[in-house]
Amino acid sequence: MNKLITYYRLAREELNKVIFPTKEQRRNAFISVLIVVSAISIFLALVDFILSASVSSIL
């Protein structure tokens, strides 16, 4: 039981050291991820369109 209490105390101490992101940092990260995912999706859609058009013209 003593080990469990010690573990819980140490876990709380470590949790107090964590610095959580601010609202602005979360918003900026969300926008960055959204932009990157959108750009990659558009690029892959264009590559898919070009490759499918070239394959269908060959066949």
From TrEMBL:
Record-level Gene Ontology MF annotations: protein transmembrane transporter activity
Alphabetized Pfam families for the sequence: SecE (PF00584)
Keyword terms, alphabetized: Cell membrane, Membrane, Protein transport, Translocation, Transmembrane, Transmembrane helix, Transport
GO BP, sorted A to Z: intracellular protein transmembrane transport; protein secretion; protein targeting; protein transport by the Sec complex
Gene3D superfamilies with a match to the protein in the record: Preprotein translocase secy subunit (1.20.5.1030)
Subunit annotation: Component of the Sec protein translocase complex. Heterotrimer consisting of SecY, SecE and SecG subunits. The heterotrimers can form oligomers, although 1 heterotrimer is thought to be able to translocate proteins. Interacts with the ribosome. Interacts with SecDF, and other proteins may be involved. Interacts with SecA.
Family: Belongs to the SecE/SEC61-gamma family.
Protein name: Protein translocase subunit SecE
Organism: Helicobacter anseris
